[in-house]
Amino acid sequence: MASRNFYVQLIFRVVLMALTALAFAFSAIELWYFSIVFSLIFLVGQVYSLITFINSTNRKIAYFFDAIRNEDFTLRFPEKVSIKSFKELNQSLNRVNSLIQEIHLEMQVREKYYQEILKQASIGIMTINEKGHILFANPTLEKLLNHSPLNHIKQIEQIDENLYSIFKNLKPFERKLFQLTNEREQTQLSLKSTPLTLDGKSLTLVVVQDINAELDEKEIESWIRLIRVLTHEIMNSITPITSISDSIIKYYSKDGEIASLKDLDDHKIKNTLKGLEVIKEQGGNLMEFVQSYRSLLSVPEPNRTIVKGKEFLGKIDVLMSTRLEEEQTNFTVRCSPEDLEFFIDEKQLTQVLINLCKNALQSVKEVESGQVQMKAGIDNDGRKYIEIMDNGPGIPPDLLDEIFVPFFTTKNEGTGIGLSLSKQVMQLHGGSLKVHSVPYGETIFRLNFA
């Protein structure tokens, strides 16, 4: 309504100015000097009135937007004016001002709510701009770093130079682990960065978490699994030894005393020899088990060199070809791009891939049209990988967390340390070994390289 009245008045003034200009032109032609002066003065007055009329409206709107920008909602326009269009315009501006004020107050409440959530969060949160200024750091982060207040990442250099170097060189979506040591305790920190843009400015959101509790929990869980497996293996070897030893003792003792030679017959002597052979065999198995444990604890540091991926996988293909059964299993190797290179210890990774390929071939042994594929490439994040995939029966979900536990095995043969050693070798290379399995679909062991 205000806009319509404004345009009506504007059109009326422009039409009146046009008529006055015509009158001035006609008077000039007819040389009516009095009419010329009068129409000119009237035209100038109309122009000045039009400019004043438009500027008054523009000034109101300009004042309105300046007040909004400065978050000043006390500005009120008078609604009791003689000009109806101005009255309606002022009323509209006041309504808009009240509405924006309500929204602003609601946003302030939400902002305080979110800030309180961030302050109470159990993880450290901070935002850094391109110049290294810390725009926000919640109390949890200041407590983790034992420094307050945090205004610039250079302050972190006073806490720990290595931690400062990590913060300074942290790339988008990068995750880092760091052990912070001070005079009170050691804290294992997990850092993750996420880029964001706010008001056209590039910022970095860094989340810092103390993972000591999680690590302790995982460590205890790993020890429990290891002890369970160790107990099972040792008991399997010790139980027959104890049972046979007890039987032999009964042969050579009577009423608590050593039996005489006349009480021994050929049957007892033969059973004694058989029992001693079983004890020797079980003792050898136990020694072999201990030796496997020692080998798990003494994996050497990798002697890494640059290895061409296609040639490396070709060697594994040749080594595994002797294990293929005729017309039962299809073993394929693929490397993309063909000039892919790895910085690895070739001997260690050869053993890892042989172990994984051997397991895959064994899993598809009873599968019709069994297939095993070894593939090397680069993922979307630019990381190099090698995958071993098969279409065997897969790994049950409840065993996925167990297969990397040392000495755990579902086979009748083997020590159960192959996957544990493989995972340890990948960790020494700065990478990881992951598994994904869909029962009777596909099983993929993936070697990710840093």
TrEMBL record:
Q: Which Pfam families match?
A: HATPase_c (PF02518), PAS_8 (PF13188)
Write out the GO MF terms.
Answer: ATP binding; protein histidine kinase activity
Q: Which reaction does it catalyse?
A: ATP + protein L-histidine = ADP + protein N-phospho-L-histidine
Q: Note the coiled coil stretches, chain numbering.
A: none
Enzyme Commission numbers on file = 2.7.13.3
Mind telling me which residue stretches traverse the membrane in this protein?
Answer: 7-26, 32-54
At the top of the EC hierarchy, this enzyme's class is: transferase
Q: Which UniProt keywords apply?
A: ATP-binding, Kinase, Membrane, Nucleotide-binding, Transferase, Transmembrane, Transmembrane helix, Two-component regulatory system
Residue span(s) of domain PAS: 110-149
Domain Histidine kinase as annotated: residue spans: 229-450
**GO terms (BP aspect):** phosphorelay signal transduction system
What PROSITE patterns does this protein's entry cite?
Answer: HIS_KIN, PAS
Recorded superkingdom: Bacteria
What is this protein's name? histidine kinase
Task: Specify the species.
Answer: Flagellimonas maritima
High-level lineage: Bacteria, Pseudomonadati, Bacteroidota, Flavobacteriia, Flavobacteriales
UniProt lists the gene as pgtB
